[in-house]
């Protein structure tokens, strides 16, 4: 029931009768919407703020039921219950949804109470405060917190939130997965994952964060619950309150253990490659020097009677040249030596032969072999494979001065893309060889350097440090890899992978002595940029009856060959020359005569570049330094084959 306007006005006048104008002024000037109503919810009076908040003018609402104006069906029951509570004599304070004149919902904070009772009539006071902006902000904050928590939990990186005392408040699932602890286990405690050697640095960084409030980043180490040590990149930032005071910190921990391992392996491979290039260059130049010495010794020996006292001295010089050549051969094996004469080989046979020889020299060492019967064959140089296994066995022997055991095992292995190795290796079929000793083992620093040239743990003058370096180079140049696992006091295991031949390629080439061929004299063109090599080679060839023409560059060689109009029987071609190198020179010679006979010569051993030239139709290869007999024999083979 709605009262008539006249009765309402009378009631309003009687009810208000505000003699104290200061109170009425306060109500009018309030920023909150204020409504005075009777016990039937009929509006008696509203202030200007009510109009601003809800959009109704006073004349539109006075005499109307307030719940009919600013509520909707969805809050009708709530409004009725509030009215009943107030009429029972209890004040109410609540927050809820109400509606403007245009139907727009707004959030309000409402205080309702009975302010006066006159002649059994109640005057109800309702204060409406518009909190729509606050509610929107709170909702946005909750949504933001929800998003932040979602990011926090979804992050693949471990994250921990600490209070100002360094105790963990929150940690995400990634932290638990990596380190093993959950928040229930460490709440109110310090997480026990800082190694002793990192505690001082960590403490300094925490103090720095507290003092300056700036983000902190550092490389460090952390322990997992099961005792593993991880390399960690740590990033920490301060959490501040509205006044800028630090309330705690948030820390992100990135596991970089695997990245560091791969980087270390990459830099180790780069270092080995650089050392290889240096060693190869030294060996090449040294071989050219030895070639000059060897050539002159060979010429002198031809003119020296075997009974002459100088003959033995010359042979002694020749022996020293040979030892120097063996040394450079080891260097080239490490550097870029490649394969001298690659043939299909049975690795088991080579292991057995070298094992037998080694056992004769070290009777206090027992060799145990577990060799796969159907082992695939490999294409390799027999002499270099002998060098590989003998050097590894000798190294094992040095690790067991009082004797011990060596275990050798061979297997067929298939390497796929998913295998993880410290060095790059193509997927495919491989022969795997493991050689394990029961020696003194190596620490990590020694293990990382064991394949470096000239690195040795022996005393001064007791080793060149080239044994395992040449093993590394030979295996690498055969397309394989070699790894070593070792711990101090627990022996060492060298594991070798060599590419296996396909079954249809696994046929040994026929072995046997080559037929003796009679010497064929003729014209030989020597091409070399080293005057010393050119001079001594010319004299050696002239000594055995050949007419010799020389050229100091590739361009000069092609021009001289063209001038001879087919009279040259053989070209001895240096592989490495400035300007026009061996390969370009060979192409130029073949353009003049497709079946040109060329003996490739180099201070380097038979490597990939030499193999490319050989595959183009080159007749043979000889490595410097060579003796007169070796040169003569190789020339005879080539000329006789034509």
3D architecture notes:
The chain starts with a helix and ends with a helix. The strands form 5 sheets. A 5-stranded antiparallel sheet has the order 2-1-5-4-3, sandwiched between helices. A 5-stranded antiparallel sheet has the order 7-6-10-9-8, with helices on both faces. A 5-stranded mixed sheet has the order 12-14-15-17-16, with helices on one face. The protein contains 21 helices and 22 strands. 44% of the residues lie in helices and 24% in strands. Helix 12 (309-335) packs across helix 16 (467-477) and helix 18 packs parallel to helix 19. With 642 residues, it is an alpha+beta fold.
Task: Please give a handful of descriptors for the protein shown.
24% strand; Beta-Lactamase; elongated; 642 residues; five-stranded antiparallel β-sheet; 21 helices; alpha+beta
Present the secondary structure layout.
Blueprint: H1 5-16, H2 21-29, E1 33-37, E2 43-46, H3 48-54, H4 58-61, H5 66-70, H6 73-87, E3 92-99, E4 105-118, E5 121-130, H7 132-154, E6 159-163, E7 168-171, H8 173-179, H9 183-186, H10 196-212, E8 216-223, E9 229-240, E10 246-255, H11 257-302, H12 309-335, E11 342-345, H13 347-361, E12 365-371, E13 378-381, H14 382-398, E14 404-415, E15 428-437, H15 444-449, H16 467-477, E16 481-486, E17 492-499, E18 523-527, H17 531-543, E19 547-551, H18 554-564, E20 570-574, H19 582-592, E21 598-602, H20 608-615, E22 620-623, H21 628-641
Parallel strand pairs: 12-14, 18-19, 18-20, 20-21, 21-22
Antiparallel strand pairs: 1-2, 1-5, 3-4, 4-5, 6-7, 6-10, 8-9, 9-10, 11-13, 14-15, 15-17, 16-17
Helix pairs in contact: 11-12, 11-17, 12-16, 13-14, 14-16, 18-19
């Amino acid at each position: 029931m709605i009262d008539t306007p006249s009765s309402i006005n009378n009631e309003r006048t009687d009810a208000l009768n505000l003699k104290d104008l200061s109170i009425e002024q306060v109500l009018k000037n309030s920023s909150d919407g204020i409504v005075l109503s009777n016990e039937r919810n009929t509006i008696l009076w509203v202030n200007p703020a009510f109009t601003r908040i809800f959009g109704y003018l006073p004349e539109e609402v006075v005499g109307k039921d307030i719940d009919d104006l600013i509520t909707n069906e969805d809050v009708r029951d709530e409004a009725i219950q509030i009215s009943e509570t107030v009429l029972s004599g209890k004040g109410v304070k609540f927050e809820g949804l109400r509606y403007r004149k245009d139907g727009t919902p707004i959030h309000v904070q409402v205080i309702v109470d009975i302010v006066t009772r006159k002649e059994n009539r109640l005057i109800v006071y309702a204060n409406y405060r518009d909190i729509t902006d606050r509610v929107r902000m709170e909702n946005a904050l909750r949504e933001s917190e929800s998003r932040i928590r979602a990011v926090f939990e979804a992050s693949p990186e471990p994250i921990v939130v600490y209070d100002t005392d360094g105790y963990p408040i929150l940690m995400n699932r990634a932290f638990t997965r990596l380190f093993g602890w959950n928040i229930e286990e460490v709440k109110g405690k310090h997480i026990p994952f800082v190694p002793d050697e990192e505690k001082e640095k960590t403490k300094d960084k925490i103090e720095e964060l507290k003092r300056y409030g700036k983000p902190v980043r550092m490389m460090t180490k952390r322990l997992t619950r099961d005792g593993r040590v991880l390399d960690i990149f740590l990033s920490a930032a301060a959490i501040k309150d509205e006044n800028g005071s630090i309330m705690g910190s948030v820390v992100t921990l990135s596991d970089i253990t695997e990245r560091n391992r791969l980087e270390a392996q990459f830099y180790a491979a780069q270092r080995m490659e650089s050392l290889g290039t240096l060693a190869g260059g030294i060996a090449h130049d040294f071989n050219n020097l030895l070639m000059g010495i060897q050539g002159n010794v060979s010429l002198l020996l031809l003119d020296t009677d075997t009974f002459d006292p100088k003959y033995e001295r010359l042979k002694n010089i020749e022996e020293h040249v040979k030892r120097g050549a063996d040394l450079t051969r080891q260097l080239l094996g490490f550097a870029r030596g490649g394969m001298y004469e690659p043939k299909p080989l049975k690795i088991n046979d080579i292991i057995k032969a070298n094992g037998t020889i080694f056992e004769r020299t070290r009777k206090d060492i027992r060799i145990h072999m577990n060799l796969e019967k159907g082992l695939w064959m490999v294409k390799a140089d027999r002499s270099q494979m002998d060098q590989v296994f003998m050097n590894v066995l000798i190294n094992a022997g040095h690790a067991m001065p009082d004797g011990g055991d060596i275990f050798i095992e061979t297997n067929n292995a298939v390497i796929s893309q998913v295998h993880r190795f410290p060095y790059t290796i193509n997927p495919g079929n491989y022969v795997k060889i493991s050689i394990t000793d029961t020696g003194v083992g190596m620490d990590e620093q020694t293990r990382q350097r064991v394949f470096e040239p000239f690195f040795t743990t022996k005393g001064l003058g007791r080793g060149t440090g080239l044994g395992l370096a040449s093993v590394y180079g030979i295996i690498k140049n055969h397309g394989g890899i070699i790894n070593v696992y070792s711990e101090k006091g627990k022996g060492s295991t060298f594991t070798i992978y060599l590419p296996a031949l396909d079954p249809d390629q696994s046929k040994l080439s026929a072995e046997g002595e080559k037929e003796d061929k009679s010497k064929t004299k003729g014209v030989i063109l020597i091409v070399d940029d080293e005057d010393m090599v050119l001079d001594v080679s010319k004299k050696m060839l002239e000594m055995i009856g050949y007419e010799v023409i020389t050229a100091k560059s590739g361009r000069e060689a092609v021009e001289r060959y063209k001038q001879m109009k087919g009279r040259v029987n053989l070209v001895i071609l240096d592989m490495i020359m400035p300007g026009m190198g061996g390969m370009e020179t060979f192409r130029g010679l073949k353009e003049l005569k497709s079946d040109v006979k060329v003996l490739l010569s180099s201070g380097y051993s038979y490597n990939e570049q030499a193999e490319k030239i050989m595959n183009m139709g080159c007749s043979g290869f000889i490595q410097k330094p060579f003796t007169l007999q070796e040169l003569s024999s190789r020339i005879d083979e080539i000329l006789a084959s034509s």
